[in-house]
Amino acid sequence: MKKSKIKIQWPNNKETYASEGDDWFSSAEKAGFEIPTGCLTGSCGACEIDVNGETVRACVSYIKSRKRSLLKVSLTTDPFWEN
Ligand code: FES
């Protein structure tokens, strides 16, 4: 089993470490960041985040390491941050 730690940088500028296969929501929670959710089945898109520029639906994906071991997360849409 691979045990490499993946560094994640969140939109609130916090950084956390995760392992490959961890879920996005619990990692976000560790950073004090909340990923919006809706259907939790991969169809509504509410939980979409950008990971190194690539859109990911957090509810149906797991953290994967890339060539660069830093994953930079940003929000594709930010309805919760406008008010
Ligand atoms: S919560 Fe609907 S796609 Fe993830």
CATH topology: Ubiquitin-like (UB roll)
Structural class: mainly beta
- Major sheet characteristics: 5 strands, mixed
Strand order of the largest sheet: 2-1-5-3-4
Number of strands: 5
Low-confidence stretches: none
The residue-averaged pLDDT reads 88
Number of helices: 1
Domain count: the total is 1
**Strand-residue proportion:** 25-35%
CATH second-level architecture? Roll
Any ligands, ions or cofactors bound here, and which? FE2/S2 (inorganic) cluster
Shape: globular
The value of Rg in angstroms is 12 Å
CATH class assignment? Alpha Beta
CATH superfamily heading: Beta-grasp domain
Assembly status: single chain
3D architecture notes:
By secondary structure, this protein is mostly beta strands. The protein has one domain: Ubiquitin-like (UB roll). It is built from one helix and five strands, in the order E-E-H-E-E-E. A five-stranded mixed β-sheet has the order 2-1-5-3-4, covered by helices on one side. A hairpin with a 2-residue loop joins strand 3 and strand 4. The protein is globular and about 30 Å long.
